[in-house]
Specification:
Length: about 280
């Protein structure tokens, strides 16, 4: 919410993290609209560049988005021997799509985002993220990911769920039925990676998701990343693999976590140098 008590500051408050909030100074409200699904805002912040906010919750900022996008994409993509056909559910800011297309082995990326307003506003105000929607390998569908996956079976090598939090239009993406559909949409050697909330705040949800994922996938792994504009600066990824040999990915997760930390440090130093 734009803080009425402290002009020029945006404060993120949510029942998902009671008793705490994050405030960022902003210079301008670039967009403030209600789509068919949610309240969409884009603000120009003083320190973090342009920022996307959905229903009062920070989704991405230009300054730290790489930490989320890179780990959400490159861990699953590098864990699969040949990820040619990829499905992204959500991800309307375009960052996950941008990172997937960095892998030359990819032949086709389908993205299913329920809210077309998010896509269009990110094209306008977050062009560094939303630059790949017109890529020849990209098939962008504005629609319900649940419905799309019900119509596709044994088709994808990797499925990445880049969702908002488990309230509003993304709530169903944290339920067992959704993961059953993902498993059905994956090829026999496929794998998924999904946004998994914060272990400091959502342990009950995480335990529940881990429990039902282990009934669907022979290998389930959890990884985390750090990003300053997310609650407690921690975000987790839930990964499910359909083949036992993918246990080697656990080692890969650790290696890529170190790589992500190094990349974050480089980005931070570059940001300081450019000021």
């Amino acid at each position: 919410m734009v803080d009425a008590h402290t002009p020029g500051w945006f404060t993120e408050l949510s029942p998902l993290w009671p008793g705490q909030g994050l405030s960022l100074k902003y210079e301008e409200v670039l967009e403030d609209v209600r789509s068919d699904f949610q309240h969409v805002q884009i603000l120009k912040t003083a320190e973090y560049g342009n920022m996307l906010v959905l229903d009062g919750v920070i989704q991405v900022t230009e300054r730290d988005e790489h930490s989320y996008q890179e780990m959400m994409v490159h861990v699953p993509m590098m864990s699969h021997p040949n990820p040619e056909n990829v499905l992204i559910i959500g991800g309307g800011d375009g960052g996950v799509l941008r990172e997937v297309l960095k892998h030359s082995c990819v032949k086709n990326v389908t993205q299913c985002e329920i809210d077309g307003t998010v896509i269009e506003l990110c094209k306008k105000h977050l062009p560094g993220l939303a630059k790949s929607f017109d890529h020849p390998k990209a098939n962008v569908i504005v629609g319900d990911g649940f419905k799309y996956m019900r119509e596709h079976e044994n088709e994808f090598d990797v499925v990445i769920t880049d969702s908002s939090d488990p309230i509003g239009p993304a709530s169903t993406l944290f339920e067992k039925e959704y993961y059953q559909l993902v498993k059905r949409a994956l090829k026999p050697d496929g794998l998924l990676c999904a946004q998994g909330e914060c272990i400091w705040l959502h342990l009950d949800l995480i335990q529940s998701m881990q429990a039902f994922c282990r009934t669907l996938f022979p290998v389930v792994s959890y990884g985390y990343l750090t990003i300053p504009t997310y609650p407690r600066s921690v975000m987790l990824r839930n990964m499910g693999f359909l083949q036992q040999q993918s246990l080697t990915a656990v080692t890969l997760v650790a290696k890529l976590a170190l790589l992500s930390a190094a990349r974050t440090a480089i980005h931070a130093l570059k940001s300081l140098y450019e000021r």
